[in-house]
Amino acid sequence: MNRDLQELRRRIDQLDDEILRLLNERSTYVIEIGQLKRQNDAGANLHTPAREAEIIQRLTSRNPGPFPSDAIRSVYREIMSASLSLEGPQKVAYLGPRATFTHLASRQKFGESAQYVPVTSIKDVFTEVERGRANFGVVPIENSTEGVVSHTLDMFIDSPLLIYGEVLLEVSHHLLSKSGAKEEITKIYSHPHALAQCRNWLETHVPNVPLSEVASTARAAEMASEDASAGAIASELAAHLYGLKVVQSRIEDNINNFTRFLVLAKTAPQRTGKDKTSVMISVKDRAGALYDLLRPFASSGINMTKIESRPSRRKAWEYIFFVDVEGHVEEERMKKALDEVKSRCLFMKILGSYPAHA
Ligand SMILES: C=C(O[C@@H]1C=C(C(=O)O)C=C[C@H]1O)C(=O)O
Question: What PANTHER family does the record tag this protein with (predicted)?
Fold first, then answer.
């Protein structure tokens, strides 16, 4: 072997030994911090997104390169995820089965070392967290092409849980199969939404292959893993978990396809300075009701990022609005605006202040 190469690899080994030593030293502080957190509050959530965001921000802003700043984010997500697992299992319940986009979003937030619990309905995600069987829950809330997930909104009406964070995930579909050879595929399985989102590609590239709807993209992947002549439209995580090969990646017709997910918890996260607040407000159906409700936000200079309305399930002609605004409930102007809104509506519930997706 070339001498220079040998010497360079020897230096890399030395540096890796040093990185390993530092990772272990870092872990001992994480364990100590965990003990302090538990002393202060036995039921505290040990995961602290505000601190994690601060660490990543600090490191990416002072990175001289050539190591890519984007990679710092993923490397540190795993370092912090693994460190956190030393403080005890961080259980995350999500809308399953495995390899769904909600699973992908959960892993993006909590890293590989969290303990993931797939459940079969959005309601079950709420229940797992409410009963303390999971520290966090992850549910979809809106998709840029399919719209809002109203079932998630409805769950907040009666649930005591708070929104702990949000995850924005670019949804990308891939055609997968056991061999990876397009010619061998005689049928394609997927969730109806995924089939709809890839319609143009399918018509152009596999016009004669019959399509078959199944309950989830993950189920499609599972079926393709059991039948060499079947293709599945699913995520890259599904390919990985079900041992499939990518026949063609990114076959969605609209490449700006994002889904927003919410992280649920029993407790509120710390304020970060770049937070969002979600509230649920109900009003009587009368002229000007909505205008009256929203005026306090506008006059306090608070930016609204979303409003959704749902009929209240309690009474006819009562509406519930789900409103997202920029800012934190502990800010004076937010307190003032929310007090004013509260005095004008039938009922108001704060669903949480949480770090806005960076
Ligand atoms: C160590 C802490 O706890 C957790 C672990 C972190 C880390 O590995 O740096 C950061 C934030 C928390 O999720 C902390 O809050 O500082």
Answer: PREPHENATE DEHYDRATASE P PROTEIN, PREPHENATE DEHYDRATASE-RELATED
If you measure from the C-alpha of residue 50 to the centroid of ligand 1, how many angstroms do you get, rounded to a whole number?
Answer: 9
Residue-level length of the chain: 358
114 C-beta closer than 6 A to ligand 1: no
Query: Among this protein's residues, is 259 annotated catalytic?
Result: yes
pLDDT tens, residue by residue, 39-63: 988 877 888 888 998 999 999 999 9
Q: Tens digit of pLDDT for each residue in 145-203?
A: 667 788 898 899 889 999 999 999 988 999 999 999 999 999 999 998 899 989 999 99
What ranges do the domains of the chain cover?
A: 3-86, 91-171+258-265, 177-248, 275-355
Between the CA of 111 and the centroid of ligand 1 the distance, in Å, is 13
Q: Which CATH superfamily is domain 91-171+258-265 in?
A: Periplasmic binding protein-like II (3.40.190.10)
CATH of domain 177-248: 3.40.190.10
Distances (CA, A) of 337 to 96, 190, 272, 275, 329: 38, 46, 20, 16, 10
In this prediction the ipTM stands at: 0.97
Please tell me the distance from the alpha carbon of residue 94 to that of residue 139, in angstroms, as a whole number: 6
